[in-house]
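Data card: per-record layout.
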Amino acid sequence: MIRALCVAGLASAVGKTTVTLALAAAFRRRGLRVRCAKVGPDFIDPGFHAAVTGAPSRTLDSWMLPADALRAAFARAGHDADLVLVEGVMGLFDGLDGASERASTAEVAKRLGVPVLLVVDAGAQARSAGAVVLGAERFDPGLEVAGVIFNRVGGARHVGWLRDAVAGCRAQSVGAVPWRDELRLPERHLGLVTARERAVEPALIDALATLGEETIDLDACLAMAQSEVAPASPPAPGAVRARLGVAMDEAFQFYYPENLEALAAAGAAIVPWSPLEDCGLPDVDGLYLGGGYPEVHAARLAGNAAGRAAVRDFVGSGRPVYAECGGLMYLADSVDDLDGRAHPMVGVLAARVRMRPRRLTLGYREVTLAADALLGPRGARLRGHEFHASHLDGEVTAETAYRVSDPTGGPGWSEGFRVARTLASYVHLHLASRPGAAEAVVDACAATRERVSS
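The structure for this 454-residue chain is written out next.
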């Protein structure tokens, strides 16, 4: 059995990430091997998890992932771990819509048999916290709300009132965390500044560990930890059939660990490179341009003209390129920075990318391949999500490979732009949503390698 706890709240911005990191750092200071996972499609929080634990943070999304893939991702999180901390998404019961538990933290916790530590923002309440905790317990009796951690507490009297307020609840009060401005993580237009850009220093990790030790009953938390899943090792890399260049730097950093593992298991040697720094490409048979913040680093990307030309030539050579969200933006003619200034990009997708920070596009997406494409045969379906504050200005005339639908309703639309053997989309896809997708990508890269060799 994997020992695990799910750190959740009844809304966003109640302190779930801070509490998760404090617990992880404190338990690591005790010598435990701690791993983290994140409910939902988020990339940013897992980056902080990895910085504190020194290991990848797994994605646990019950809409994108079939049931067996969800359990497999959690099982991998538990490999060689003494404790797994699962950070929830949004509010505990928030998910795909308002009528069901689909894609919610509660659904994931129940499917995996993981008890919930409920983080309650007590900054503006006292006895009312009891109603909050009792409401969570009664809203879904099948969910185990095992403990409660009060965040942003005042003095000792305030903490006493809060503990009195939940005395009649099943959940045990296991922590009272005061406001610490020095531990606040900086934000921008799409959420937190990423761990890769901010550089999580050892001093911050030490401060988080001390916060956890001084304000949370770690022994009580550890005694609650459990699940219904046995640990399992990640898939071993397969025999190398192709080399896949993966853009990895401050501008491009959003990848599900499971995607990269699946590609490696299918026979891809993962070769990192930096569109910000590298003037040329490594010796690879295909490229994977993931999501990130090209708009933040637009001037530096534009300044690396040799790097942009190398990517443009690679696309023109007919070798496979898969780009999503930030990767799509990089392949466009130009990208506006946050001040509205346009910067030249690779220029293989005839469009200008403009920013609209106050109008986010976000939500789950299902794509159906309208023709044989890089990710599989016609009719194949994959799941993912969109989250961006940019849009393509004007009509894009490139051929499209996808029919995209929103599972919450509304008409579908065509997307997944094709230029030569390049496939570019705003949708972040999870390759585990369709068995065979990773193999299809590696097959395409391997076929290119064979043509070049012959």
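Known properties of this structure: The longest helix spans residues 437-453. The chain has a mean pLDDT of 95.

See the next section for split statistics.
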